[in-house]
Specification:
There is one protein chain. Helix 4 packs parallel to helix 7 and helix 5 runs antiparallel to helix 7. The protein contains eight helices and no strands.
Length: 186
Amino acid sequence: MLAKTARVLGSIPGWLLPSTGLAMATIAVFGYSAVDLSWIRDARDMGGSPLYSKDFLQILGRNVGAALVLYSGVATLGLTTLLGAGILALYVGATVSLGVHSVGGAGLVADVIWYVPFEFVGLVLAATAGFQPAAGLARRLLMKNEPATVRSFIDDMARSLGTLAIAIALIVLGAAIEAIVIQLKS
């Protein structure tokens, strides 16, 4: 299993995964700083935290849905992945901002450290998978060491499914851990 995982991850161009992760993290920082926090003080008095209101199927549906939107770039030469990753990263940054200003940085980290790394890495991998065929096509067109054919594009799409499978596995693991954490806090 580890050999198959290594082979799948090895099929990702070396620059693609780090640049996708860096771009999403950078946009998340912008999303973090762009949130209006004036209403948080009132929300604290309402009781209950929205951070703990989702069950496993809702978490899974939301995160797998986001991963599939990120993956949709395989059919659009990465365009929908680019748009989806930007929007998702803004959402992640805004959510972190709200969490930090609601429960504090240490409180937020203590709440999410067990599952967010799996979910975030899974989403970055899903975005990477969405870019894989376009990155392969660009490499072939720019390097000109092998022809860019429909067959090579389809092969890159097939390889991207392996990356997506790893992403979904991480997202399912993160959702399960999140649901357990929520249950333990209830």
